[in-house]
Amino acid sequence: MDVQGFEDKVIKGGCRTIAQSKIIITEVEFHELYEGQVLFDGIYDQLGKLGFSFKGIISTSLNPNDGLPLFADAVFIRQS
Fold first, then answer.
1. Sequence ranges of the domains in the chain
2. DSSP secondary-structure letter at 18?
3. With contact defined as beta carbons under 8 Å apart, do 74 and 25 qualify?
4. From the CB of residue 45, how many other CB atoms can be counted at a distance below 10 Å?
5. Is the alpha carbon torsion for 40, 44, 47, 52 positive or negative?
6. Going by DSSP bridges, is the β-strand pair 23-29/69-78 parallel, antiparallel, or unpaired?
7. In the beta sheet, which residues pair with residue 23?
8. pTM to 2 decimal places
9. What is the pLDDT of residue 21?
10. How many angstroms from the chain centroid is the CA of residue 34?
11. Is 14 in contact with 45 (CB distance < 8 Å)?
12. In angstroms, rounded to a whole number, what is the distance separating the alpha carbons of residues 32 and 5?
């Protein structure tokens, strides 16, 4: 899921689809790139409440100025 800062809204609006999913791969930001967006911690909490656990990062994009992570593709798997 890569929806330019609207990940939290897609999760809220896609509950039926998410309820049928076993794995979610979504872009998460660590610093605000889009005004008012929910960052990693919020997505982590939101998906955790839906029964998913964070399993890791597939890829990360770093800030060229300081080398810190800007955003990444995160993997969440439904807990059994």
1. 7-78
2. H
3. yes
4. 12
5. positive
6. antiparallel
7. 77
8. 0.86
9. 93
10. 14
11. no
12. 9
If DSSP states are collapsed to H, E and C, what string results for 12-44? HHCHHHHHCCCEEEEEEECCCCCCCCCCHHHHH
Instruction: Tell me the two tokens of residue 16.
Output: 């039926």
Residue 53, amino acid:
S
Tell me the chain's radius of gyration from C-alpha atoms: 13
Tokens encoding 22: 């076993």
Taking only the tens place, the pLDDT of each residue in 8-49 is 888 888 888 888 999 999 999 998 888 888 999 999 999 999
Does an H or E element contain 12, and which? Answer: helix 7-13
Residue 51 scores a pLDDT above 90: yes
Supply the DSSP symbol for 36: T
Three-state secondary structure call for residue 69: strand
Tokens of 27: 């872009």
